[in-house]
Amino acid sequence: MKRIAVFASGQGTNLEAILEAVKSGGISGEVALVISDQEKAQALQRAQRWGVKALFINPKEYKNREQYDQVLVDQLKADKIDLVVLAGFMRLLTPLFVRAFPLKIMNIHPSLLPAFPGLEGVEQALAYGVKVSGCTVHFIDEGLDTGPVILQEAVPVIQEDTIETLHQRIHASEYRLYPTAIDLFCRDKLKVEGRRCLIID
Ligand code: GRF
Questions:
Q1: Residue with CA nearest ligand 1 atom 1
Q2: What region, left, alpha or beta, does residue 151 occupy, with left being phi > 0 and alpha being psi -120 to 50 degrees?
Q3: How far is residue 5's CA from residue 122's CA, in Å, rounded to a whole number?
Q4: Up-side HSE of residue 80: CA atoms within 13 Å toward CB?
Q5: Which of 27, 39, 86, 101 lies at 20 to 30 Å from 182 by C-alpha?
Q6: Which residues contact 161 (CB under 8 A, 6 or more apart)?
Q7: Residue 109 a catalytic site member
Q8: Torsion-angle region of 187 (φ positive above 0: left; ψ -120 to 50: alpha; else: beta)
Q9: Given ligand 1 and candidates 11, 174, 175, 178, which is best to mutate, with the most ligand atoms within 8 Å of its CB?
Q10: Ligand 1 pocket by C-beta < 6 Å: which residues?
Q11: 58 φ/ψ angles, rounded to the nearest 5 degrees
Q12: Which atom of ligand 1 sits closest to the CA of residue 43?
């Protein structure tokens, strides 16, 4: 059984969807740890409600990003974590962290990458005027939202959309897509060849 750590800075609705999927057997792994860089993150309260170990690790207590990331790496090793799942984690990970977990860190981004990377993917898509956006689950590499794509789902943009309504529909799609990608990883079904992530039988 793979041991999963979820990193979240905010409300943690993807975390909730992941915990539900674990409970219903949709993910054949367990969430062993939730970490936040925000003391008041709702994600931490959600984890506690589910009886999952939840840690606030305060970036302000460390001199630089490498030191902070080293503490994260040590914690993950101590908890024997196999997969790190970023779910609204609002910090860039340093190469030190990424190299400690090669192709073992996933992220979900609220656009169809490589369109609209970085902050505010939903706002960017709406401002650009695209007719289709969506969400992307990808592995993390040392760039910003540039790692191999695992799964994507399209979400139509409608004329009446605001940032909120579009983000709501993208969120609904994320709650399906992320657990699916995590389960594929847990069942050793993902194989990366260069930039391409293949799903194997
Ligand atoms: C999601 O839209 C995700 O795509 C982005 O951050 C948001 C997190 O939302 N990376 P939540 O905290 O899971 O509700």
A1: 88
A2: beta
A3: 26
A4: 5
A5: 39
A6: 126
A7: yes
A8: alpha
A9: 174
A10: 8, 10-14, 87-88, 108-110, 135, 171, 174
A11: -85, 115
A12: 12
Q: Note the pLDDT of residue 179.
A: 99
- Report the residue among 9, 93, 171 best suited for mutation to probe ligand 1: largest number of ligand atoms under 8 A from its CB: 171
**In a structure prediction context, what are the per-residue pLDDT tens digits for the chain, which is 201 residues long?**
999 999 999 999 999 999 999 999 999 999 999 999 999 999 999 999 999 999 999 999 999 999 999 999 999 999 999 999 999 999 999 999 999 999 999 999 999 999 999 999 999 999 999 999 999 999 999 999 999 999 999 999 999 999 999 999 999 999 999 999 999 999 999 999 999 999 998
Residue 11, classed as helix, strand or coil, is: coil
Question: How confident is the model at residue 154, as a pLDDT?
Answer: 98
Return d(Cα 20, Cα 3) in angstroms, integer: 16
Q: Tokens 């609705």 belong to which residue?
A: 13
Report pLDDT for 41.
98
Helix (H) or strand (E) holding 20, with range, is: helix 13-24
Rounded Cα distance between 182 and 197, Å, is 13
Q: Which domains are delineated in the chain?
A: 2-199 (3.40.50.170)
Q: Look up tokens 């367990």; give the residue.
A: 30
